[in-house]
Design goal:
The complex is a heterodimer. Chain A has helices at about 1-5, 15-35, 50-60, 65-85, 105-140, 145-160, 160-175, 190-230, 230-240, 245-270, 275-280, 285-295, 300-325. Chain A is mainly alpha-helical. In chain A, helix 8 runs antiparallel to helix 11 and helix 10 packs antiparallel against helix 13. Chain A is globular, with a radius of gyration of 24 Å. Chain B is of the alpha+beta class. Chain B has a domain at about 280-535: Dipeptide-binding Protein, domain 3, CATH 3.10.105. Chain B has helices at about 1-15, 45-55, 110-120, 170-175, 185-190, 235-245, 260-265, 315-320, 325-335, 365-370, 400-415, 425-430, 460-465, 490-500, 505-520; strands at about 25-30, 60-65, 70, 90-95, 135-145, 145-150, 200-205, 210-215, 230, 250-255, 270-285, 340, 375, 385, 390, 390-395, 420-425, 450-455, 525-540, 540-545, 560. In chain B, strand 16 (about 390-395), helix 11 (about 400-415) and strand 17 form a beta-alpha-beta unit. The two termini of chain B are about 25 Å apart. Classes of the chains: A mainly alpha, B alpha+beta. The interface between A and B is large, with 58 and 65 residues. Chain A: One of its GO terms (cellular component) is plasma membrane. Chain A: InterPro entries: BPD_transp_1_N, MetI-like, MetI-like_sf. Chain A: It is found in: Cell membrane. Chain A: It is a multi-pass membrane protein.
C-alpha cells in the first residue's frame, strides 16, 4: 500500500494544493452528513421547556439560518476568524459550541494535554512493547517464544478495552485499592509528588491502551520479519556466518517499512482519543469531547473536531511518505 | 475506667454535631457523571448544569425537601398576609436580607435582581428559563433592598421567578455586557459567575471538571464546612455508583440510576448509602387520539382531522391500561426508587389525586371490556372488528429499562388479544423538535408511546395546560405543541381556565386533581406507570445530605460536613 502512495507522485506544490482541496471536500461532506442526520441540538433539553422557549434558544444559536449560510459562516470562522484570533486580532464571533457556548478551540486546547498524556502514552508504550515482541516472534517463527508472543498479541488485540478497563478498575481500584479509578484532570504536576500522582493515575488507562496497540503492531512487525528472513540476502548473510546482531539489523531495516506505515497512519488516532478508555477512567480527553458532542448534536464542535482529524490523517500520510524515502533510499 | 469509656462514647456522639468553622472539613469530592457544560442556568436547562451552579449562585427563595418555599436571599417569603402579594394577585414584593455580599465583596442590591429578569427576558438571548419569568410586565427596584414584580395578569402562583435553582440572581456588574445576542460570547462570565452561594469558582473545565473554594463572603460565617470542592464528570451511572459505594474515592454521586439489584449489591460494601426522593417524574404510556396511518397524506397524518380508528374508543384505552402490572414494572425497572402510580400529577400531596384503582392488574376485565367494545378474537388470536385487526405500533426512546418495559407490555397486551409492533428511536431524535423528522415524540407517528416527564417547582398548572385543544401539534404549527395526544375536551379547557383564576393552595389542589383525573382514570388518555424518584449516593464519611426532589440536590451543601 505504501508503495502506491509514493508512486502517486512527489511532494510538490501540486500535491499540497490537491490535499488542501481534499480537506475542503472533506469538510463539505462532513457538514452535509451531519446536516442530513436526524437529531436536534435541543433534544436533551427537558420537556418542561415550552416550544416558544426552544425556538428562541435555537435562534440565539443561529440554528434558524439556512444550511449553506451556516456552512459558509463556519468556513469563515475556521479559516479567518480563528487564525486571526490566535494572532491577537478580533475579527468577529469565534466558533462557539452549542453545548457550553464556549469557543470550540479553547475547549479543544483544554482537552489536548490529557489526551496526549494518556492516549499518546498508551501509543508509545504499545510501540515500545511491540518492537521486542515482534522481533523475538519473527526471529524464530514457530518457536515457543513466538507462540507466547503471538498469544499475548492476540489477547491484546481481541480483548475489547471496555473489558480490560473495567477489569483493571475492579482489581486495582475496588479490590486492592492501589490505583485511582478516576483520572483527575485538574491535577497540577508540580514537583515529584505531583509527578508521582500523575503517574499513578496514568497507569491503568495507559496499560489498557498499550496492550491493545502492542497486539496490533507486534503482529505487523512479526509478519514483516518472517518475510524478510526468507530473502536471499539474509540467507547469504547467515550462510557467511554473520553475527546475529548484524543479521537482525539488516532484517529490521526492511521489516520496519510496513510498521512505519501502521504507526504513522495510527498517529491521528492518538488525537482522536480513545473513546471507550477515556469513558471508563473519566479521562475526558478529545474522544469523550467528540462522543459527547455527537450525542448532544453540537454541530460546530463535531464539525471542527472531525475536520481536524481529517486534516491530521492527510498530514500523517505526508509524513509517512517522507519517512519511507528516508528508510528506503530506492524509493527516492 | 468506666467514666473514661462513657466520656469517649459521648464525644463520638457529639463530635459530628459540634459546630464546625468555615473550611475546617477540607476537600469534598462530588461526581456528576454527566459533567456540567456551563454554570449559567439561563443558557442551559439540564439538571447537570444547574445543580452544580447552585453551589455558586442563588435565587431569592428555594424549595426544601417537602416542596415548601423558604427564603435564601429574601428576608421572608411574600404572602397576602405580609403584604408581599397584592390583593389582585398582580404585584409581588420581595425584600432582600440586609448586608448581603457577592463573593467579590460588593453589596447585593435589588438592581441585581431586576437585571436578572431583564437578562432572561431579553428576546435575543435565547434564555432557557424564560418560562419562569412568563407573564411579567416589568420589574422595579424602588430601593436597594426592595424588588417589585408587576404581572400583566393575576398570578396565583408567583414562585417561579427568582425561586429555585433554575432562576438564580446574577451580578449586574459582571453580566451587564452579556445581554441578548452577546450572551453566548460571555464565556468567562458563564463559566465563572460571581455568586452569593457557599462556594466560589476557582476553575471550570467544560464537560469535565469544576473546582470551587469556600466563599469568604458567605452570609453565615460558620459555613460551609468544606474548604474546597471538586465536581468531576465523565463515565456513566454505574461507574459513579462504584466510585462512591465501592472504591470510596468520591463523597457524593448524582443520579446513580442503575439496575436495582446492582445498586443493592454495591451498597452492601458498606462504604456509603443510596438516597432517594420522589418528585413529579412519571413514566407513562401516552395514547394517540389521531390516526397515525402512513396511508394518509403527510399534512393530515396524526392530526385531529382523522380520529384514531381504534384508540378513539375510551373502552379500548381502559382495557390496555387494565392489562398492565404497574407494580412489577416499578420493581423491575427502579426497585426502591420507583412507585407504581395512576396519577399524572403524583405530588405534592395537595395536588395528588387519591387515584389507585389502576394498580391491580385485571386481564380478565380488560378482555371483557374489549368484547363489549366489539373487538372479538380472530382465528389467529388477535382481536378484530369490522375487518380491522387490533394492531398497535408502540414507540419509545432507546433506553435499557424502556426496552424491558416494551417487552413486558407487549406480552400483557398480546395476552388480551392485541397485536403489538415495537419501535425504538434514538433519544436525540425522539425528544428533538426537528419538524422534518417523522420520528419525534411530538409528531407521534405511532399509536402509543412511552417516556417520562415532570414539572418544575410544585405547582402543576403549566403542566396540565399542555393538554388543551389549541396545543395539538399540526403542520400549521410546524408540528410544535405540547398536546401530543391531540386530546380535545372543552370541559377540560374550561376547568383549566378556572385554575388560572383561582388562588389558595387548597382550592387549586382540588381543581388540579379533577384535571388529573380527567386525563387519567376518567379519560385514559395518559396511562401513568411509575413515579420515578431521584437517586444519588453519598459516602458514610459525608454528613448533612438531605435529598430534595423539588430543587437542586445540592440545595443544602452549605450544611454538609465531614462525618467522623
Amino acid at each position: 500500500m505504501g508503495q502506491r502512495i509514493v508512486e502517486r507522485g512527489g511532494l510538490g506544490a501540486g500535491t499540497l494544493i490537491g490535499r488542501l482541496a481534499l480537506l475542503l471536500v472533506i469538510s463539505g461532506v462532513i457538514f452535509l452528513l451531519i446536516e442530513a442526520a436526524p437529531g436536534d441540538p435541543l433534544g436533551q433539553v427537558p420537556l418542561t421547556l415550552s416550544p416558544e422557549v426552544r425556538d428562541r434558544m435555537r435562534a440565539a444559536l443561529g440554528m434558524d439560518q439556512p444550511w449553506h449560510l451556516r456552512y459558509l459562516l463556519w468556513l469563515k470562522q475556521l479559516f479567518w476568524i480563528e487564525p486571526l484570533h490566535w494572532l491577537g486580532i478580533d475579527a468577529g464571533q469565534r466558533l462557539i459550541s452549542y453545548q457550553s457556548r464556549a469557543p470550540v478551540f479553547d475547549v479543544i486546547a483544554e482537552r489536548l494535554p490529557q489526551t496526549l498524556w494518556v492516549v499518546g502514552g498508551g501509543y508509545l508504550a504499545g510501540a515500545a512493547l511491540a518492537l521486542p515482541m515482534g522481533l523475538i516472534a519473527g526471529w524464530r517463527p514457530g518457536g515457543w517464544l513466538d507462540r507466547a508472543c503471538t498469544g499475548l498479541a492476540m489477547l491484546g488485540w481481541s480483548l475489547p478495552t471496555f473489558l480490560t478497563g473495567v477489569l483493571l478498575v475492579l482489581i486495582f481500584g475496588v479490590w486492592l485499592g492501589w490505583l485511582p479509578s478516576v483520572y483527575d484532570t485538574t491535577l497540577r504536576v508540580q514537583g515529584w509528588e505531583g509527578l508521582a500522582q500523575q503517574a499513578r493515575q496514568m497507569v491503568m488507562p495507559v496499560a489498557v491502551l498499550a496492550l491493545y496497540n502492542a497486539g496490533q503492531l507486534s503482529r505487523v512487525l512479526r509478519a514483516a520479519m518472517v518475510q524478510a528472513a526468507a530473502q536471499d540476502y539474509i540467507r547469504t548473510a547467515r550462510a557467511k556466518g554473520m553475527p546475529t546482531r548484524v543479521v537482525l539489523w539488516h532484517m529490521l531495516r526492511n521489516a520496519l517499512l510496513p510498521v512505519v506505515t501502521v504507526v504513522a497512519l495510527g498517529l491521528p488516532g492518538v488525537f482522536g482519543g480513545a473513546i471507550i478508555t477515556e469513558q471508563v477512567f473519566r479521562v475526558n480527553g478529545l474522544g469523550q469531547l467528540l462522543i459527547g458532542a455527537v450525542q448532544a448534536n453540537d454541530l460546530p464542535m463535531v464539525l471542527t473536531l472531525t475536520f481536524l482529524f481529517g486534516a491530521l490523517i492527510v498530514l500523517c500520510n505526508l509524513v509517512a511518505d517522507a519517512l519511507y524515502r528516508w528508510l528506503d533510499p530506492r524509493l527516492g | 475506667m468506666r467514666n473514661v469509656a462513657m466520656i469517649s462514647a459521648l464525644c463520638t456522639v457529639l463530635a459530628p454535631m459540634a459546630h464546625a468553622e468555615r473550611g475546617a472539613d477540607g476537600q469534598l469530592n462530588i461526581l456528576y457523571w454527566q459533567a456540567p457544560s456551563t454554570l449559567n442556568p439561563y443558557l442551559s436547562s439540564g439538571t447537570k448544569d444547574l445543580e452544580p451552579s447552585s453551589l455558586v449562585i442563588e435565587p431569592l427563595a428555594g424549595f426544601d425537601e417537602k416542596g415548601d418555599v423558604f427564603p435564601r436571599l429574601a428576608a421572608e417569603i411574600p404572602s397576602a398576609e405580609n403584604g408581599g402579594i397584592s390583593a389582585d394577585l398582580k404585584t409581588v414584593t420581595w425584600r432582600l436580607k440586609p448586608g448581603l455580599k457577592w463573593s467579590d465583596g460588593t453589596p447585593v442590591t435589588s438592581e441585581d435582581v431586576k437585571f436578572t429578569a431583564d437578562y432572561c427576558m431579553n428576546p435575543d438571548g435565547g434564555c432557557a428559563q424564560l418560562g419562569r419569568y412568563e407573564g411579567i410586565d416589568r420589574v422595579e427596584a424602588p430601593d436597594p433592598l426592595t424588588v417589585v414584580i408587576h404581572y400583566a395578569a393575576p398570578r396565583p402562583n408567583p414562585f417561579t421567578a427568582f425561586t429555585g435553582a433554575q432562576s438564580p440572581i446574577l451580578q449586574k456588574a459582571q453580566f451587564a455586557g452579556c445581554m441578548g445576542a452577546a450572551a453566548s460570547t460571555c464565556t468567562d462570565q458563564n463559566f465563572r459567575p460571581i455568586g452569593t452561594g457557599p462556594f466560589r469558582v476557582t476553575e471550570f473545565r467544560t464537560n469535565d471538571a469544576l473546582t470551587l473554594e469556600a466563599n469568604p463572603n458567605y452570609r453565615d460565617p460558620a459555613k460551609p464546612a468544606f474548604a474546597t470542592v471538586t465536581v468531576k464528570g465523565g463515565g456513566d451511572a454505574a461507574g459513579a455508583a462504584t466510585a462512591v459505594l465501592e472504591t470510596g474515592e468520591f463523597d457524593y454521586a448524582w443520579n446513580t440510576q442503575v439496575p436495582p439489584d446492582l445498586l443493592k449489591s454495591m451498597e452492601a460494601a458498606g462504604k456509603g448509602r443510596v438516597v432517594t426522593a420522589f418528585g413529579t417524574l412519571v413514566e407513562r404510556v401516552e395514547m394517540n387520539l389521531s390516526d397515525p396511518s402512513p396511508d394518509l397524506p403527510e399534512t393530515e397524518r396524526a392530526t385531529i382531522k382523522h380520529p384514531h380508528p381504534i384508540l378513539s374508543d375510551e373502552r379500548v384505552r381502559r382495557a390496555l391500561s387494565m392489562a398492565l402490572d404497574r407494580q412489577l414494572l416499578s420493581d423491575v425497572g427502579y426497585g426502591p426508587t420507583g412507585r407504581a402510580t395512576c396519577n399524572l400529577v403524583p405530588a405534592p400531596e395537595v395536588f395528588a389525586s387519591d387515584n389507585t384503582g389502576c394498580i391491580a392488574q385485571d386481564s380478565e376485565g380488560a378482555m371483557a371490556l374489549l368484547d363489549q367494545a366489539g373487538w372479538v378474537p380472530g382465528t389467529d388470536g388477535v382481536r378484530e372488528k369490522d375487518g380491522r385487526k387490533l394492531h398497535l405500533l408502540f414507540q419509545t426512546s432507546a433506553n435499557p429499562i424502556r426496552q424491558d418495559y416494551q417487552a413486558l407490555i407487549k406480552q400483557w397486551w398480546q395476552n388480551i388479544g392485541v397485536s403489538v409492533e415495537l419501535k425504538v428511536v434514538e433519544p436525540a431524535v425522539f425528544f428533538g423538535a426537528d419538524a422534518n423528522s417523522p420520528d419525534t415524540f411530538i409528531r407521534f407517528n405511532a399509536d402509543v408511546e412511552m417516556f417520562a416527564n415532570n414539572f418544575d417547582g410544585t405547582d402543576p398548572e403549566p403542566y396540565l395546560a399542555r393538554y388543551t385543544c389549541d396545543k395539538a401539534p399540526s403542520p400549521d404549527t410546524q408540528w410544535q405543541g405540547e398536546n401530543i395526544n391531540r386530546y380535545c375536551n372543552a370541559e377540560f379547557d374550561k376547568l383549566l381556565a378556572e385554575l388560572g383564576r383561582t388562588s389558595g393552595v387548597q382550592a387549586r389542589g382540588a381543581i388540579a386533581k379533577k384535571l388529573n383525573d380527567m386525563l387519567t382514570k376518567d379519560g385514559m388518555v395518559v396511562v401513568p406507570l411509575v413515579d420515578r424518584g431521584r437517586v444519588s449516593a453519598h459516602s458514610n464519611a459525608l454528613g448533612g445530605v438531605v435529598m430534595n426532589a423539588w430543587d437542586s440536590e445540592l440545595w443544602n451543601a452549605a450544611d454538609w460536613v465531614r462525618a467522623r
